[in-house]
Amino acid sequence: MAAANPWDPASAPSAAGLLLGHLVASGVVTQEMLNISKKSDSYFANFSRLQQITEIQAEIYQKNLEIELLRLEKDTADVVHPSFLAQKCHTLQSMNNHLEAVLKEKRSLRQRLLKPTCQENLPIEAVYHSCMVHLL
Q: PANTHER family from the entry (predicted)?
């Protein structure tokens, strides 16, 4: 058997190796326990699976956001559609024309509102004539 090379780090026992050898010799740790702990690739495999699951969940979340945006766009598409906007514009223009007419007739409207209405004839159906006689 060849003598250990003092300059080769693989041949020199490390402090951790010496400690583990001492623990195995004293019976605190068994060799099976050390062999189980050597299987570090299972931890990394689980870690990589966990990372893949996290990435897939992030992708699912992103797709759900895109679906929600598409649904919102679909729900609001009829509101911003040009034909609906033209109809709303036409309605607003007619309201604007009516308000302009009211402002032009402001003086005559004010005079009509100030004039008393008690001496005007109101058309009443014949069925209600007896009721009006009792009321007056």
A: HAUS AUGMIN-LIKE COMPLEX SUBUNIT 2 (PTHR16039:SF1)
